[in-house]
Each structure stands twice: as structure tokens, then as C-alpha cells.
Specification:
two-stranded parallel ribbon; mainly alpha
């Protein structure tokens, strides 16, 4: 097989994997990249391109499962908690596609000046993270939820400090992310009271949604330990009272823009802020592959836009009665098995603790973004100016 044929095979394999995993509740993009590395142990650019393709396509599939089917996925949670209105799925993927293209342009522009502003960025990162942490607490609402939020931030932060600084755990990120955001969501679907579905009014496409979402995505690619949920909270504080904003579209744009920008900046500036971009960079082994990365991003964006427009039309009506609970049980068993295989009993122990903490926001009605303090607190300590 020619080099081009081998490359196309890996990219299409990533597209197929991402299309499938986006429908599975509890599956995170970092897990997909980790599984690819697990089953294809050799470091090469073909595997790196499969990671890019799978990660981007996974997001498109999550939009279908979140908006059309209302399945318990990470994107579904964000849509429900932060959205005030919705659009048709066609408009959703249209905006996501445009956000991906904008992210390419702005990320390339950022990469050229990042060498000059990176020292400044490192200096202010600590203060930005403090601001995010404060925003999480202030946005809790009532004093009771504020206390719950502080407690969850503290528990997740302590767990992060122990797990990330211990040589005992082989890969602490996988069980923590799976527990906080994957298994806890599945348990809510199976055993707890479901989150009440809000009635969302329909709105049309707006350049404001795209601009804000792309901006959020670029911030996530630049600043460590920041999530879409935290950035959306910040944006709502600034733009929340503006008319014509659709936060569902904004979240969709942010999710795709953050991925695209992180892949580009990881290659151009060695700035890997997501698990997928870090694994991609590791697979490339120091080679310069910017043109190849851009080509795969553009190809995957176009393919996912066309394919998922078709999928949405064909499967949404037939899958409304799909046995989500049975699928959630299968996903739960799969996630536990993967964490046990990769992390043994210690990984399973960490998974249980992170799941327990991940259930607290669901039980108390607070923002689940508080659980990201398991990365935020260690990162704060790392960037502490007098450390």
C-alpha cells in the first residue's frame, strides 16, 4: 500500500471510530485517543492523524446524540445546563464547521506571535486560573450551593494533587475523567432522577455565537486546565444579557474550535493543552507535519459535515425509541473494564473515588465543572508565582 493509501486508511478508520464513540454515553475524547495508542503501540504519523480524525468526528456524533436524541453525553449535559435556545441540527453542524475553519485561521495567526507573548501568558496564567476558580464559586447561586461548590472543588483538588503527583498510579487522568464526567452521568441516567429537560426556543444562525464559541475554543487551547463549561460561564457573565445569543451553538463552536486549535498549537508551539493533542504530538516524534495536520483537519471537517448531515436525517426518527438504559449499562461495563485493564486495582480504586465526587454536583444541583479542579488546583500550584 502506498503512503497516501495508508494515511487515508488511518484517517478513515479514525472517522469510523469517532462516529461510533460519539453515540456512546460516558466516552470522552481523551479515552478514544488513549485506546488508539493502546491498540497501535508504534509511534507514527499515521496514528497521530487517526487521533485527529477520531477526535473531531466524535464531537459531530455527540451533537447528534445530545441534541436530537438527548442521550446522557458530556455535550448533552452542556447543552442542557448552559443553553437558552436551540437551532436545527443542520445549522448546528454548519456553525461547527465554520468554527473549525475559523479556528485554523486564528490558530495559525496565534502560532506566529505566541513566541513573543508566551512569557506574558505564563505570567498571567496563575491569575486567570484564580479568576476561573472564583467564577465557579460565585456562579453557584445560593449560599447553600456555594458551600457545596467549595466542598466539591476542595475534594476534587485534593484527589488531583494526590493522583497526579503519585508514582503509584500509572495513568491517573483516565480514571479521573471517566469517573467525574463519564460513569457519574451514566449512573444518573440509570439510578438517579434525570435532569429536567428545559424547553428551548429555536433561533437562527448568528455570527455572534460563532465568534464567541471560536474565542472560547482558542482560550481552551491556550490556557491549561480550562473547560468549555468554565469558559461558557465566563462568557455568559459578559454576554449573557445580549440579545440574539444562542449558547447551544456557542458550545458547539467551542467544542470543535478547541480541538482544532489545540492540534495546530501543539505542532507549531509545542503547546498541548488537551489529551488528544498531547498524544498526537507524542506520536509524531518531533517531526514537522503542520501541512499534514491541516490537511487531515480540513478533510475530517468536510467529511464529518457531509456524513453527519446525512446520518441525522436518517437515524433521528428511528432511534428515538432506542433502549438508552441498556446501552448505558453496556457503556458502564465497558468503561469499568477499560479502566481496570489499563490501571489495575489502583486505577479502579481511583475510578470509584472520582465517580463518587462526580456524583456530588448531580445530587446538589451545582455545576459539574467544579470537578475540573482536580486539574485546576495542581495547575494553580505549578504556576504559583512565588513557588
Amino acid at each position: 500500500m502506498t503512503e497516501f493509501g495508508l494515511l487515508l486508511t488511518f484517517v478513515l478508520a479514525g472517522w469510523i471510530l469517532g462516529t461510533f464513540t460519539g453515540f456512546i454515553p460516558g466516552i470522552h475524547g481523551n479515552l478514544i485517543a488513549g485506546l488508539l495508542v493502546l491498540f497501535f503501540s508504534s509511534s507514527n504519523e499515521y496514528l497521530a492523524m487517526a487521533i485527529i480524525s477520531a477526535s473531531i468526528t466524535h464531537v459531530f456524533s455527540e451533537w447528534i446524540s445530545a441534541q436530537l436524541l438527548q442521550w446522557p453525553t458530556e455535550t448533552g449535559y452542556l447543552f442542557q445546563v448552559y443553553s437558552n435556545s436551540k437551532t436545527s441540527f443542520q445549522e448546528l453542524i454548519h456553525q461547527g464547521f465554520i468554527a473549525g475553519l475559523l479556528a485554523i485561521i486564528f490558530a495559525l495567526g496565534l502560532s506566529s506571535i505566541l513566541f513573543f507573548i508566551q512569557p506574558i501568558l505564563q505570567t498571567i496564567t496563575f491569575h486567570l486560573l484564580i479568576l476561573v476558580l472564583g467564577l465557579l464559586i460565585v456562579s453557584a447561586g445560593t449560599w447553600k450551593k456555594t458551600i457545596y461548590t467549595i466542598a466539591i472543588i476542595g475534594l476534587a483538588g485534593i484527589l488531583g494533587l494526590i493522583a497526579l503527583n503519585s508514582l503509584t498510579f500509572r495513568d491517573p487522568l483516565l480514571p479521573c475523567i471517566t469517573g467525574f464526567f463519564g460513569i457519574s452521568t451514566l449512573l444518573q441516567e440509570l439510578f438517579l432522577e434525570k435532569m429536567k429537560t428545559k424547553e428551548l426556543t429555536s433561533t437562527q444562525w448568528s455570527w455572534k455565537n460563532n465568534a464567541i464559541g471560536t474565542g472560547i475554543g482558542l482560550n481552551i487551547a491556550l490556557i491549561p486546565s480550562i473547560t468549555i463549561g468554565e469558559q461558557t460561564l465566563a462568557a455568559q457573565e459578559i454576554f449573557g444579557k445580549k440579545k440574539g445569543l444562542n449558547w447551544q451553538n456557542t458550545i458547539a463552536c467551542a467544542s470543535i474550535a478547541s480541538l482544532v486549535a489545540s492540534f495546530i498549537l501543539a505542532e507549531t508551539n509545542n503547546l498541548a493543552r488537551t489529551g488528544q493533542s498531547a498524544l498526537m504530538k507524542e506520536m509524531l516524534s518531533g517531526k514537522e507535519n503542520l501541512i499534514l495536520i491541516l490537511g487531515v483537519i480540513l478533510f475530517t471537517l468536510g467529511l464529518s459535515y457531509l456524513s453527519h448531515s446525512f446520518f441525522a436525517k436518517k437515524i433521528s426518527a428511528g432511534m428515538q425509541n432506542f433502549p438508552v438504559k441498556l446501552f448505558s449499562v453496556i457503556s458502564l461495563i465497558f468503561l469499568i473494564a477499560i479502566n481496570f485493564i489499563l490501571g489495575s486495582w489502583l486505577g479502579l480504586f481511583l475510578l470509584i473515588i472520582s465517580t463518587s465526587i462526580g456524583l456530588l454536583p448531580l445530587l446538589t444541583g451545582t455545576h459539574r465543572s467544579s470537578c475540573m479542579s482536580f486539574l485546576l488546583i495542581p495547575t494553580l500550584i505549578f504556576y504559583f508565582p512565588f513557588g
